[in-house]
Amino acid sequence: MSQFEEEEEPTEEPLAEFQFYATPDAEVGVYANILSVWHTAYEFTLDFAATQPPQPADPENPDAGGVVPSRIVSRVKIPVTVVFDVIRALNENMTQYEEQFGEIQRPGEDEEASP
Questions:
Q1: Upper half-sphere CA count for residue 91 (Cβ side, 13 Å)
Q2: What is the SS3 assignment for 112?
Q3: Which of 13, 56, 58, 79 has its Cα between 20 and 30 A from that of 4?
């Protein structure tokens, strides 16, 4: 480099701060107790749903089993490139939750059950 050339310092872009907000009708949220996940080559779709009372699959045949209607209350589509960020955020928050409130128990699990 000659004495007349100045070394350019790399310029760093300022970090963007995301500010999340919800519209008034979305602030309350929606209840979901089941999740269905499916994908295409370009995106993952998360269908959050609320289950309805079970119905017989065939009312004429009691051995036919049943179906549980599940009404989708929210569908979220995310690009494939964001999936790891979603998993990481859920894992971090689940860890923080368990540190504060204790281990998450699935319905029907008994904390004091012996192995």
A1: 6
A2: coil
A3: 13
d(CA 97, CA 23): 26
CA 72/CA 47 separation, integer angstroms: 6
Cα separation, 2 vs 102, whole angstroms: 64
**pTM, full prediction:** 0.73
Q: How far apart are CA 93 and CA 54, in angstroms?
A: 32
Residue 12: helix, strand or coil by DSSP? coil
Contact 64, 48 (CB under 8 A): no
What is the CA angle 47-52-56, rounded to 5? 115
Kindly report the number of other CB atoms within 10 A of residue 49's CB atom. 20
Q: Is 63 left (phi over 0), alpha (psi -120 to 50) or beta?
A: alpha
pLDDT, one tens digit per residue, over 67-111 is 999 999 999 999 999 999 999 999 999 999 999 999 999 888 765
Beta strands 70-79; 66-67: pairing state: unpaired
Q: How many angstroms separate the CA atoms of 51 and 71, rounded? A: 6
